[in-house]
Design a protein that fits this description.
The complex is a heterodimer of chains A (663) and B (345).
Chain A: H1 2-13, H2 20-47, E1 51-57, E2 62-63, E3 66-67, E4 73-77, E5 83-87, E6 97-101, E7 107-116, E8 121-126, E9 149-154, E10 163-173, H3 174-177, E11 179-182, E12 194-196, E13 202-207, E14 228-232, H4 233-244, E15 256-258, E16 270-273, H5 278-281, E17 289-293, E18 296-297, H6 301-309, E19 316-323, E20 326-333, E21 348-350, E22 363-368, H7 373-376, E23 384-388, E24 391-392, H8 396-404, E25 411-418, E26 421-428, E27 461-467, E28 472-478, E29 488-494, H9 502-516, E30 518-523, H10 536-549, E31 552-562, H11 566-575, E32 582-586, E33 604-610, H12 616-628, E34 633-638, H13 650-657
Parallel strand pairs in A: 29-30, 29-31, 31-32, 32-33, 33-34
Antiparallel strand pairs in A: 1-4, 1-6, 2-3, 4-5, 5-8, 6-7, 7-8, 9-10, 9-12, 10-11, 11-14, 12-13, 13-14, 15-16, 17-18, 17-19, 19-20, 21-22, 22-23, 23-24, 23-25, 25-26, 27-28, 28-30
Chain B: H1 2-21, H2 29-37, E1 40-44, E2 55-60, E3 66-70, E4 79-83, E5 89-98, E6 103-107, E7 129-134, E8 147-158, E9 173-177, E10 190-193, E11 198-202, E12 206-208, E13 213-215, E14 217-220, H3 221-233, E15 262-264, E16 276-279, H4 284-287, E17 295-299, E18 302-303, H5 307-315, E19 322-329, E20 332-339
Antiparallel strand pairs in B: 1-2, 1-4, 2-3, 3-6, 4-5, 5-6, 7-8, 7-10, 8-9, 9-14, 10-11, 11-14, 12-13, 15-16, 17-18, 17-19, 19-20
The chains are: A alpha+beta (663), B alpha+beta (345).
Chain lengths: 663, 345
């Protein structure tokens, strides 16, 4: 029968130029593709009864900088009596009421039961009796193979069938073991819907996720990009009993940091154990090498992240560490929140050594803060701190590191040299104060040598430059007598929307830059209206360009902004914590919850608020919130009724900037 | 077996057509692409102002050179340039347009152009594999064929299932495609099956205001077939005039909650849920059993997400309509029907 068809075809088509071989080569593959298409459609039909439509009423219109949708979204039925799992993204707007429309058209109100804050899922319960829904069938977790068909379903369009996007499984165990990755098109159109295999079993529940960021809307920027994520349904079913109890699930934390920046290199060694954390309670110590978690051998930091990625707060783990030659096994119960980290404070400023100065042992004291532990212990300007807690204080950053490992109230032993005499003292450390020293004098910067005539030095004075890779411009001011042997502060001005305030800023800051050794960098937003989230890379690159070209003390790189520029500046500060160590804001409340204070990245805040401005209350709350997280915060209320740039405070700002390397 | 038989029949019919017109109607993916390519044109017109691009795609639908494309600013000039797959250039004139369908028909001079038969177009369902042909981002230069993408039909739906979701004059059924088909210059391209059968015309770039995402859609040929035929034969009269740029039609305010005896909670935020605050004594709403704290979820099957949406929905009512409300009370849904009263002028 078949050969007859082909022969018949040949007879007719050959005169038109088709060759026998091309026809024969295509015929079988074409049938396979048709069969595959049919299989996809059948798999969709099989799962469709478990795919529901979710509509919400009320709620916020934006979360952070992301507009939340009001469009319908999708959910997957996970129990016959009315539990539905969906993406937490769909409820980021905190809707007042939720409606679920079943595949058969029945419509019910629903309530949020609990949220999985680790995998960004929300469990709903449909109200109603004798629902007899069709729970989705999970594909076995270990049978999921990269390369197999993956079909993403959504139920957001006005159409009886679910919407379909066809792709493959791109990876398994992504985002520290939490998610599958697929190249099917994943977007708000199918977030919360199922990713299914070609046999009609559910591989996972579609969610926006980001390897870098957390939060309900993280990862949305990748919609329809060919990078999509799904939480394996088998894992969802495993967590379901706990979610049904109505308590949110959180990522499990143990409270350690690991030495070294490269998470793929070397046996992980504990750098810090957070006070009050599960690791602290289990008496783990800095210097312990982690060799096993829950029976999994650990040889790299990354493996710890893999081992913990799928764990929730409340989960128990067994950690094996090596301490010297000893091997210890400890049981830990993970928690969702750690006690905020607070750095201890001695109360000195280290000397600013010239770049070319030879390294000497010890930290010479440039300034002792009033009422500080150092003052009370009798430390004076010119003293040299040579040892701390029995270790050499080789540099100011080493001393800062040692002090930052203590808590306020802890006592440290210091060896202090004055002239030729050395003495041992014990100092009770305190918290970083919220005052700004008013008698602090700037370090005089000796003028630099003019560059050799045949060599162009770095640009000085006021100049403007393009960042070619970004289609952005910035302007900058570098003191005319710039001295490459001296480390400068870098003040990064993030202008508010609609106004670069270039004249104002130049007027007030140029004299301070010259006097106190500050370089001013002012990136310009692409749109005059204001900053866009994705412009943070440009600012980061501009700052790195300045760090590369000029001698800048990295601990004194500060973001300065006002009103509508503030949210973007806060975002920069928290996104690039290794880059910015100070944040100086005028009348800008935080709009999103800040991350935790981290010992590795000290960020200090100086906030101003106009007493009679509508934002005053929110700005005060920001200061209180940051203090609650134990960030060093100085908060000033400007009572004189002004709402312009507070130029008479510029000198105070520059003094604060000059203390950022305080220990 | 049935499907095989169907296929055989189709092959024979196709082959007969092929022999008759001398153009190869493809049945295999490889030849389908080159066949479709010959029928797609690149259109260059006005643009450049305000960063608007000045190019789009189109497809031939008659041997005499009629070209179907989307109605856009690219056609704002009297003549536009049309370049065929083989590099031949033509000046084209706009012979007609139907803004309500986002449709325009151009004409170039000549005969025996390879073309699609609009009557042979086919329908597709979610999951159908398709190809999309267009000159997106004008990647195809001069004599090169346009770019081809693959994807599946994600859904068949109505573009404006709800008011205000999409800013487009077209409001009929569309195919949504799971590939990023709608790019600058893609409008007027075609979506075909794997075997080159015409399915739909690619629309413009369009944002879904509800989910804040871009949507990739194409207009089924069946929706534009009649209008194209009428434009070509000169019998066409446009059904709508194109709204001017600032021409948001005023929203009707025929009725308000008060007319039914309903008082909602104060509308304080962008999405204040439409909770009933109180009821006027003896009003229709009170008699129908609506109670304070009920939440209005649907007005005549339209989801109500805020007090504002409720006002708009009531504003559209006409005397004599029925007002069907779905309310949430506790964990239950209640349906209430109220007559829409006659209003005194």
């Amino acid at each position: 029968m078949r050969s007859w068809i082909i022969t018949g075809l040949l007879a007719l088509i050959l005169p038109c130029g088709m060759t026998l071989s091309s026809l024969l080569a295509q015929q079988p593959s074409q049938d396979l593709e048709a069969l595959e298409e049919e299989a996809v459609k059948q798999a969709v039909a099989l799962v469709a009864p478990s795919v529901v439509r979710i509509e919400t009423v009320g709620g916020l219109d934006r979360v952070g900088q992301v507009l939340t949708g009001t469009a319908p979204t999708t959910g997957v039925v996970v129990s016959a009596d009315g539990y539905v799992i969906s993406s937490a993204f769909n409820f980021a707007s905190k809707p007042a009421s939720i409606l679920v429309t079943l595949a058969d058209g029945r419509r019910f109100p629903a309530e949020q039961v609990a949220m999985d804050q680790s995998k960004m899922l929300t469990l709903l319960k449909v109200a109603g009796d004798n629902l007899s829904l069709t729970p989705a069938q999970a594909a076995p977790d270990d049978g999921i193979k990269v390369g197999q068909w993956a079909i993403a379903l959504g139920r957001t369009y006005n159409s009886p069938q679910p919407s379909v996007s066809l792709g493959i499984v791109s990876a398994v165990k992504r985002i520290w073991g939490k998610a599958l990755q697929t190249d099917a098109k994943i977007s708000p159109v199918n977030y919360g819907g199922p990713l299914i295999d070609i046999e009609g079993r559910v591989l996972g529940v579609l969610v926006p996720l980001s390897p870098q960021a957390t939060g309900q809307v993280a990862g949305v920027e990748w919609y329809d990009s060919g990078i999509g994520f799904a939480i394996p349904l088998a894992d969802v079913y495993a967590a379901l009993p706990r979610l049904k109890l109505g308590k949110d699930l959180f990522p499990g934390l143990m409270g350690i940091t690991v030495k070294g920046r490269d998470i793929y290199e070397g046996q992980p060694t504990i750098d810090r154990v957070r006070y009050g954390s599960p690791a602290y309670d289990a008496k783990l110590k800095d210097g312990d090498q982690i060799v096993e978690i829950d029976g999994r051998k650990i040889a790299r930091h990354a493996q710890i992240l893999h081992a913990l990625g799928n764990k929730y707060a409340g989960d128990k783990i067994v950690v094996k560490v090596k301490r010297g030659t000893e091997e210890l096994s400890r049981d830990l119960t993970l928690v969702d929140k750690l006690v905020p980290y607070e750095s201890a404070y001695l109360g000195v400023l280290p000397n600013r050594e010239a770049v070319s100065a030879p390294a000497v042992l010890g930290v010479t004291v440039r300034y002792v803060f009033a009422d500080s532990p150092a003052k009370q212990a009798g430390i004076e300007r010119g003293d040299v701190i040579v040892r701390c807690q029995g270790r050499d204080a080789t540099t100011s950053s080493a001393l800062l590191d040692q002090i930052s490992r203590q808590r306020p109230g802890d006592k440290v032993k210091l060896t202090v040299r004055r002239g030729t005499a050395s003495r041992e003292i014990e100092v009770a450390l305190a918290s970083i104060p919220d005052t700004i020293a008013d008698d602090l004098r700037a370090v005089a910067v000796p003028p630099g040598a003019a560059p050799a005539a045949d060599k162009a030095g770095p640009k000085l004075g006021r100049f403007e430059e393009d960042m070619p890779a970004h289609e952005h411009k910035f302007w900058a001011y570098v003191p005319e007598d710039y001295n490459a042997d001296h480390r400068y502060s870098l003040l990064v001005w993030i202008h508010p929307g609609r106004d670069t305030m270039e004249a104002d800023i130049t007027k007030h800051w140029k004299p301070l830059c010259d006097e106190k050794g500050i370089i001013l960098l002012a990136p310009k937003a692409k749109q005059p209206l204001g900053w866009n989230v994705d412009e943070s890379e440009f600012v980061k690159d501009a700052v790195e360009l300045m760090l590369e070209k000029y001698a800048i003390d990295k601990s004194r790189v500060v973001l300065h902004s006002m009103t509508t520029g503030g949210p973007f500046a806060y975002q920069l500060a928290f996104k690039h914590r290794d880059l910015f160590h100070g944040v100086n804001m005028v009348q800008t409340p935080l709009t999103a919850p800040p991350p935790d204070n981290e010992p590795e990245h000290r960020v200090q805040f100086l906030l101003y608020s106009f007493a009679n401005d509508a934002q005053h209350k929110a700005t005060s709350a920001t200061a209180t919130g940051l203090r609650g997280l134990k960030f060093p915060v100085t908060f000033r209320v400007i009572e004189d009724g002004a709402t312009e740039y507070p130029s008479n405070y510029a000198d105070e700002m520059s003094r604060w900037l000059d203390t950022l390397d305080r220990i | 077996m049935n499907s095989i038989r169907h296929k055989i029949r189709k092959v024979f019919v196709t082959t007969a057509v092929v022999l008759a017109c001398g153009v190869v109607r493809a049945e295999s993916p490889a030849t389908a692409i080159s066949t479709v390519d010959q029928r797609i044109v690149k259109i260059f017109g006005s643009g450049g102002l305000k960063g608007l691009y000045g190019y789009s795609s189109g497809f031939l639908v008659s041997a005499e050179g009629h070209i179907v494309t989307v109605w856009s600013h690219v056609l704002d000039e009297k003549t536009v340039k049309v370049i065929l797959h083989d590099g031949r250039r033509f000046d084209a004139v706009v012979v007609g347009a139907e803004p309500a369908l986002d449709l325009a028909v151009l004409k170039i001079d000549g005969d025996e152009f390879p073309h699609f038969q609009l009557d042979d177009s086919v329908a597709a369902v979610p999951g159908t594999r398709v190809w999309a042909f267009s000159n997106m981002f004008k990647v195809a230069a001069g004599d090169e064929p346009v770019s081809v993408m693959h994807g599946v039909i994600a859904a068949r739906t109505n573009l404006t299932a709800r008011r205000g979701v999409f800013e487009t004059p077209y409001s009929g059924p569309v195919y949504v495609i799971d590939a990023i088909t709608n790019n600058p210059g893609s409008g007027g391209g075609v979506v075909t099956t794997r075997t080159g059968e015409l399915v739909a015309m690619i629309g413009k770039e369009l944002r879904n205001a509800q989910s804040n995402t871009w949507i990739n859609y194409a207009i089924p040929i069946g929706e534009i077939r009649t209008a194209v035929g009428e434009i070509i034969t000169g019998k066409f009269t446009p059904k709508t005039t194109r709204p001017s740029d600032d021409g948001q039609p005023a929203k009707p305010r025929n009725y308000s909650a008060f007319d039914f005896g309903l008082v909602l909670v104060p509308d304080v935020i962008v999405r204040t849920p439409a909770f009933v605050d109180s009821l006027l004594d003896d009003s229709a709403a009170a008699q129908a059993g609506i109670k304070p704290n009920d939440l209005v979820l649907f007005v005549n099957d339209e989801l109500i997400q805020s007090c504002r949406a409720f006002d708009e929905a009531l504003g559209k009512l006409e005397a004599g309509d029925r007002l069907k409300l779905v309310l949430r009370r506790g964990n239950g849904l209640i349906t209430v029907e109220l007559p829409v009263p006659k209003k005194k002028p």
